[in-house]
Every structure is written in C-alpha cells, then in structure tokens.
Design goal:
145 residues, mainly alpha, 0% strand
Amino acid sequence: MDEKKRAGLLYSIILALNGAFGIEFFVLLEHATFLAGPAVVLSLFLCGIITMITLFSYCELGSSISKLGGEYTFAKAAFGGFTAFLTGWMRWVSSVATIALAATGFAQFFYYFIPVSPSVVAILLILVFTFISVRGTRAVDIITV
C-alpha cells in the first residue's frame, strides 16, 4: 500500500474537482442549454449546490471512516455487505460510463482541429490513460499536475 502515501492534499483536491467538474460538464452543457434555454444558469447553480453538499458528505464520511474503499466502505459500514456490493458495482459502471463520455466529448472537440475519426481518438485516449493509470499514482501525478 505504498501507493496511498503518494496521494497528497493537492492530488486529492484535483481529483475531487475533476470528479465534480470534469469534461463531462462541457460535453453536456450544450444539450442542457438546448433543453433548458436561459434557465440552464439556474440548473447549474442548483447542481453546484448539490455537488457541494455531496462533497461535504464525502469529507465527513472520509474523516469518520478511516478505511480505504470509498463508497463501498461507506455503504458497508452503514447498510452491510450486499448493499456495499451493489454500491461498488454501480460505482464501477458509472465510472466506465463517465470515462466513455469524457473520451467521446474530447474526441468530438479534437475533431474540429484535426479531422480524425472521433471513435479512433476516443479509443486511443482510453488506452493511453488506462496505461497511465496502470503505472500507478506517481504517473497520474505527473499528468494531472
């Protein structure tokens, strides 16, 4: 578990901000503006409040439950093993969907500058960041900061 010692405060803050305001925000903003019109500003404000409440909840849970595991550990402490199992799987599924959305959004943005197939760019992007992630938190720190 030497890897956990390398994730400092700055890394944790950047990771939390990326989780709250990643590229998905910019990908979905066009669709939200189309659906809500000018009321999208109110929607973003309300989502920001909900996000802050969620982040504060994670801070409280993280300080009171000092085990590794995130949502899985929190759900296990509160509701038991089966709920924790479902929570872990739902977190994994949502992470896969988020990664796919981010890669697709970046690939579509990239297409405006260099006309390469967005599908190819998205797949390459996922492969590159998977490789970086497999290398460990030290490699992620270099890319993130």
